[in-house]
Amino acid sequence: MAGFLDEAPRDRSWGRFKNRYDAGRAIAAKIQEEINAGNLDLEGKGVVIGLPRGGLEVGYAVANDLKLPLDFRSVKKVGHPMQPEFAIGAVDISGISMSNPFVSPAEMPSDEEFERMVERALTQARKMEVDLRGDRESRLKDADWCLVVDDGAATGLTLLAAVGGLKSEGLKVIVAVPVSSDQAKKLLSEAADRFIALMVPDHFGAVGQFYDDFSQVPLEDARKFL
Q1: pTM for this entry
Q2: How far, CA to CA in Å, does 89 sit from each of 44, 76, 92, 124, 126?
């Protein structure tokens, strides 16, 4: 069973983050606190992994404060046919995919249609890889562990797919987010080697409600973070 932390740092009063960079600095402070207390063993070579695009701004702050290299993981959500913003699954660049265990079978498309949707999402993930990676080599090469961050976890499925892909490559995976739904907490605390969330509110509507500024991160900005 992976560990789980949901305590807020003592020196802040939670409710909202100014922006993703502010959230990333808060995550870095929590990680450092856990390291200092001996509760988090990060021996060996580590990399911060931000999930594009919002998670890259969070990751940029974490990597800066913890003095670690930053990279990304291409993952794509599989949206419900009638409600594309709602994730019924996700796929990692490795091809590892996840379905949403909290969606009833009656609300899911057929297995054949779901497989087609996963393939379309994987094509999008591969395009994202090219758009963001360019000619840069992955910093995961020779890494022992990675700290995967995003701007929040609603369903947690994109993070779950990333965890599956990274662990298949033999990496120790720690996931850290500013805010998580209880559903995502359950999934990620089982899948990751460690799951850390600064907030797990009783009433979770959307990740954006916990930010003053939750504007979209342009592709060019995402590239600059890397």
Answers
A1: 0.90
A2: 32, 9, 11, 14, 17
Per-residue confidence (pLDDT) for residue 14, from 0 to 100: 52
Residue 95: how many other CB atoms lie within 10 Å: 15
Computed on alpha carbons and rounded to an integer, the radius of gyration of the chain in Å comes to 16
Amino acid at 178: P
Q: Residue 25 and residue 188: Cα distance in Å, rounded?
A: 21
Average pLDDT over residues 89-107: 94
- As a whole number of angstroms, the distance between CA 172 and CA 120 comes to 29
Q: Could you give the domains of the chain?
A: 3-74+134-225 (3.40.50.2020)
What pLDDT score does 16 carry?
A: 87
Structure confidence by residue, pLDDT tens digits, 193-223: 999 999 999 989 899 999 999 999 999 999 9
The DSSP result for 9-67, as a single string, is PTT---S-BSSHHHHHHHHHHHHHHHHHTT-----S-EEEEEPTTHHHHHHHHHHHHHT
Cα angle value 65/185/37 (rounded, 5°): 45
Q: What are 17's two structure tokens?
A: 């983050």
Token pair 């599989």 is at which residue? 78
- pLDDT the model gives residue 1: 30
What whole-number distance in Å separates Cα of residue 168 and Cα of residue 9? 32
Contacts of 193 (CB under 8 A, 6+ apart): 2, 145, 172, 173, 174
Q: Are 114 and 78 in contact (CB under 8 A)?
A: yes
According to DSSP, the β-strands at 97-99 and 83-92 are antiparallel
